[in-house]
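Margin note: ligand = S-adenosylmethionine.
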Amino acid sequence: MIEYWESRFKNEGAMWKFDPSDSAINAMEFFKYEKINEILIPGFGYGRNAKLFIDNGFKVTGIEISGSAIDLARTNGIQCTIHHGSVTSMPFDNKQYEGIFCFALIHLLNKRERRKFLKSCFNQLKQEGAMVLTVASKQTALYGSGKYISRDRYEIAKGLEVYFYDSESVLNEFSDFEMIDCRTIEEPVKFMKGEEPVKLKFVVCKKSKTAIPFSR
Ligand SMILES: C[S@@+](CC[C@H](N)C(=O)[O-])C[C@H]1O[C@@H](n2cnc3c(N)ncnc32)[C@H](O)[C@@H]1O
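Resulting structure:
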């Protein structure tokens, strides 16, 4: 996994340019409505989504496995704290965040890692905080391509393993984390002219006042 992302960021640089995803724009509006200002972004990349939040006055911390992506963020003027490592080693600090935004990361993990990641995110959320995650959907054209690994999980390119969710698996994996919404969205591919939008699931969880932390 790390080799895949290292080589892509090293060879292709800021490959998705700096336009934020529509998911980030929608999450930002939701966070503003919820009066959320301090957020964690796991799977930070080189910060194309983080930049939107930073430019809009949010306090952002990132987590990113690829050193090359972090270097790209720095050369593009992104100064916030970015923890260098895998989300499977969370927590990287003892802070609690008002919000978490995670775009297209969780589906790269295996089942055990996905569960641990969600627990770690939930534990790092303040009470009444919220997390927004976008995840690969079985409705996307890529579903079923590449090498079969296990149910709904495929190696779609060498070193790139993806788990594809449907409504049932979202419910199975997210319902312990106080999920309040899950919708299928069409995320435009802004950096490639004429490309079809990608179908993703946009999942929102909101931690209640009485939530109890998960053991690791
Ligand atoms: C599909 S990209 C999305 C990047 C970013 N969220 C964006 O939209 O611009 C997935 C990102 O997660 C990072 N990543 C993959 N596995 C990771 C892990 N286990 N821990 C932390 N980051 C990881 C990759 O290096 C890459 O930057």
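The beta strands are 38-42, 59-64, 81-84, 97-103, 125-136, 147-150, 153-157, 160-163, 179-187, 198-206.
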